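Please go through this protein, sequence plus structure tokens, and consider how the sequence yields the tokens. Keep your notes short.
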Amino acid sequence: MSRTALPEPLAEGYSRFVNQRAPAEQALYQQLGQGQSPHTLVLSCADSRVDPATIFGAAPGELFVLRNVANLVPAFDRYSDDGHEGSEVGGQGPLTATAAGLEFAVGHLRVSRILIMGHARCGGVAAALHQCHHPEIAEDKGSGRYFIDRWVGQMTDDGREVLADHPGADADTLQQQLEFRNVRQSVARLRSYPFIASAEAEGRLSLHGGWFSIADAALWWMQDDGSFSAVEA
């Protein structure tokens, strides 16, 4: 197949969209062509199994979605005045993509809420736990783990605390506990951004945490005390 041709799985999906969904929602797409006003920013993992629009049954234009490995929010103090990381922690480079998305959604689109959504069996969380057990990080940029280890290294301290808090726990328990803790910490780090803290103080923005169990399609919601409870459909 020519590299200039649309790959078959994408072509088939686009055909379904054009022939089924687009005609049924023509008025919506014409409206969206003039601009967007999503009600919620969802920061989720890049995992292909976790699609916020599918999980929440959202129509185009309802959710502003940011996705990265392990749904991580870098702390605001990781950035210097020029928008790049101020101090090299774990050898990481600029982390501005997530911050730019947060700034645009809160300051320009004025979303009403931010949801940090983790999920079960997260590969990024597994990589962070592996890093806690094997703190030596290869400096070989061709290792296949170089950038992953530096990104998930933001969870190293949290991973160590999970290991300390659950001595003797099995791998599945440690994985889930770090997935929960990572959501809690990412929500907390949102408040380190002045524009988010101000919007929350003004009462126009609320912050939330969630966790999705892929195998049974169940959503768990973070409570005020940081615990997670299953949502009744």
